[in-house]
Every structure is written in C-alpha cells, then in structure tokens.
Design goal:
The chain has a single domain, classed as Rossmann fold (3-Layer(aba) Sandwich), CATH 3.40.50. It is α/β, with parallel strands linked by helices. 42% of the residues lie in helices and 16% in strands. The chain has 13 helices and 13 strands. The protein is globular, with a radius of gyration of 20 Å. The strands form four sheets. A seven-stranded parallel beta sheet has the order 5-4-3-6-11-12-13, with helices on both faces. A two-stranded antiparallel sheet has the order 1-2. A hairpin with a 6-residue loop joins strand 9 and strand 10. Nicotinamide-adenine-dinucleotide binds next to helix 2, strand 4 and strand 11.
C-alpha cells in the first residue's frame, strides 16, 4: 500500500515501516558517532521500549555499549491494508539492526502492567541473560488495569484546585489560542497516580528481585519531567505532577530495596521533547515549539537519542551522576538554564498566531511529530508500494 500520514488531533493513525526504520537508523548513527560508552550496561531491560525515550534508551544501550536488550511495549501490528503503530515498526528495525551488529535483542508486545507479561519477561531473562544490570522504566499510557483487582484506572492531564487558562497551540494549523482546563477531582488525581506513578515500577522491581534476575550493582531508572513555572499548573502541580511525585516516592523505596545488591534506583528528569505522549498535553506543545527555537539557535538542542546517550555516557556510567538536591538525575539541565528560560518567558508573554512563525519553531515541531511515525525522513520513497504487514523478528520466530 501507499502510506501517507493521517493526523487526527494530536495523533497520527498511520506509520511508515521504511520511515520508522530510517528514524531508528539515524538514532543508531548518532550513538555510534560518539564512540563506545565505556563501562556501559551489558544486559538491559527496557519497559516501554518502542518509541520516545524508551526506544532511544534501548538504542543507546545496544549501539553505545553493545548491550543485550529485552524490550517491552504495547503496539498494534499491521496487516495487508492497515499500518502497524510506529513502535511496532521501530522495534522491527531495531531488531534487524541489532542482529546485523551481532547483538541479542528480544521483544515482548503486551500489557506491561499485567502479571503475565512480567512473568514472561522474567522467564526470558533467566533463560537468555541470567540477570540484567540496567532496568529502564519508560511507560507512558492513558490507562492501566490493576493486575490484582482488574480495576481500570484512567489518567487525566488536568490542573488541581482551580481551572487553568493559558496560551495553547493548535499543532495542525499553527494558530495560537487560549485553552481553559477544569481542575481534576480527587478520584481523577488518584487514578492518574495509579497509571503514571511508581506503583507498577515497584511491582516490576519486586518481581525481578524475587526471581533473582537483578545483577549486583543493578541500576533502575524511571523518567520524569519538571519544566518551567508557566507549565506547572498543567504539569508539575497538576495530576501528572502528582503521579511523578509518586514516582519519586517509589524511587526512594526501591533505592532501599536495591541497596543489598549495591544497586541504585534513579528518577531521571529529561528534556521536554515531541513524543506521542507529550503531544497530548495541553500548553506543552507551544512551550516545546518556543524551546526548540531557542535551543537550536543556541546549538544545544537535543532529541531523545542525544538525551539518552548523555544520560548513559555522562551520568549513569561515568561515576558522576550529578544528582540534584532531591537525588534526581537532571538531563533537562540545558533546557532549564536561566538564559534559555529567560528568553522563553519573554517570548511566551508575546507569542500570538502572527509572530509565532518567527519566534517559535513550528516547522521543527511538526517535522519532529511526523518523524515519530516515520514520515518526512530523507531517503525514503513515500510513493512506493509498501508492505505494511511486516513483522518483528523475535515475535515471529
Ligand atoms: P512514548 O509515548 O513515546 O512511549 C511510551 C512507551 O510506553 C511506548 O513504548 C509504548 O508502547 C509503551 N506502553 C504504553 N502502554 C503500555 C502498556 N500497557 N504495556 C506495555 N507498554 C506500554 O512516551 P515518552 O514521551 O517517551 O515517555 C516515556 C517516559 O518519559 C514517561 O514517563 C514520560 O513522562 C517521560 N518523559 C517524557 C518527556 C517528553 O517530553 N516526552 C520528558 C520527560 C520525561
């Protein structure tokens, strides 16, 4: 079939297998161009490994440190007349490249919140790797089924206490308008914590510990975001921020549990970037568009792969993780410099539909978004008849 983007609001319902493969190849090239990650991880489990930060973590571990990787994700396969989700094609491409490089890679497509997937993955670690020395927890999901009670929790992106009005970007048209979001009630806050908080990270770690598959010196890392004060009502002080606070609670508890193994649990605060998860958050895409412009002009812009490469190379595996006062790793440091934030604050006050194309990076936002689905990549023939039903080697073997 001929595959073109079909955008519905903040998602693209199609994905291009060759474009996704090219996107993965470009990320691999970034990591390789920086040389080997000395003393990097050797056996890595990535939970949420198919897109965004998790995919880049898997690529950085495999192609920077020659790590064997097991990836877990929830993606839809394609068929003769409909495309798979991007994460499915990304994983196919990753596995093909890993195999060509002589690297072990095995993938699990299922609900990471379930007990069944946890057991399957643990059996695979036992059988193939023995133990893992790095666990990356990078899930972003709108819902979670409680494995014990069967209750389905839904996460919401809302402020707490009072309604929040701020500037907002229509990411299809480039129109800058205003959005008002009503506050969450207590139940919505609790449900969001159940989905995006630390509970499932703890369940994974407990299960991995109990099975004895965490190596001496293991590190386990989950990702968070803080950002500048203009986004706090919807992010840091909103429902998602409550969930991220819970993630930090879990980090402290897991840190104690991993101590007997000389292990360490971390929360890494990463940069705001266009991913499938972040494009769903109100206000944030406008902030990201302004941020990209400033950081590209400054020469400090990074995408997920540069962020994850830096996390491994300059924090987790160089003996100098540089935690902040709350014990978090900060690879959002370049985003959060006073110089960058000062320019953004001025532009935030001034931005409107007319000046947005000059002071924001709308083109960069849109092209990054399309690239997530394998569109707009150099060297891909988008007019070619393409097989959308291709599989993931380790899932079809
Ligand atoms: P993403 O949407 O690109 O990736 C989410 C991953 O989770 C995918 O691999 C998906 O398949 C997987 N997933 C979702 N539900 C699943 C389920 N039930 N079972 C198995 N896998 C499932 O998201 P992202 O932006 O890379 O976010 C990953 C983490 O990074 C999140 O914790 C997010 O808060 C954090 N983070 C994101 C940003 C940003 O700007 N994007 C910044 C800082 C931190």
């Amino acid at each position: 079939m001929i595959i073109a983007p079909k955008i519905r609001g903040f998602i693209c319902t199609t994905a291009h297998p060759d474009g996704c493969a090219q996107h993965v190849a470009e990320q691999i090239a970034v990591v390789k161009s920086r040389g080997p990650i000395e003393n990097g991880p050797k056996r890595v489990l990535v939970i949420g490994s198919s897109t965004g930060y998790g995919l880049s973590s898997r690529i950085a571990a495999a192609f920077g440190a020659n790590a064997s990787t097991i990836g877990v994700f929830f993606e839809r396969p394609g068929s003769a007349d409909s495309t798979a989700t991007a994460g499915f094609y990304n994983t196919r491409a990753f596995e093909i490249q890993a195999k060509a490089a002589g690297l072990y890679a095995r993938s699990f497509n299922g609900d990471a919140f379930s007990d069944a997937v946890k057991s399957e993955v643990i059996e695979a670690i036992k059988a193939d790797l023995g133990q893992v020395d790095l666990v990356i927890y990078s899930l972003a999901s709108p819902r979670r089924t409680d494995p014990k009670t069967g209750e389905v929790y839904k996460s919401v992106l809302k402020p707490i206490g009072q309604s929040y009005t701020n500037k907002n970007l229509n990411t299809s048209t480039g129109v800058v308008n205003e959005v008002t979001i009503e506050p969450a009630d207590q139940d919505e806050i609790q449900q969001t914590i159940h989905v995006m908080g630390g509970e499932d990270w703890e369940l994974w770690t407990d299960a991995l510990l109990e099975a004895g598959v965490l190596a001496h010196g293991v590190q386990s890392v989950a990702y968070s975001y803080i950002g500048p004060s203009m986004t706090w009502p919807i992010y840091k002080n909103g429902t998602i921020g409550c969930a991220k606070e819970d993630l930090e609670r879990a980090q402290r508890s897991l840190d104690a549990k991993l101590a007997p193994l000389a292990g360490k649990a971390w929360v890494s605060v990463n940069k705001a970037l266009v991913t499938q998860a972040s494009s769903a958050i109100p206000v944030v895409p406008l902030y990201i568009s302004l941020l990209y412009k400033v950081m590209k002009d400054e020469g400090t812009h990074e995408d997920t792969i540069e962020q994850m490469d830096r996390l491994f190379r300059d924090r987790l595996y160089n003996g100098n993780p540089q935690p902040d006062e709350a014990g978090r790793i900060r690879v959002d440091d370049w985003e959060m410099t006073p110089e960058v934030q000062q320019i953004i604050a001025e532009r935030w006050a001034a931005v409107n539909t007319e000046n947005f194309k000059d002071i924001g990076d709308f083109e960069g936002y849109q092209s990054s978004f399309l690239r997530l689905f394998g569109f707009g990549l150099a060297g891909v023939d988008y007019s070619a008849d393409t097989d959308a039903s291709v599989g993931i080697p380790s899932l079809t073997a």
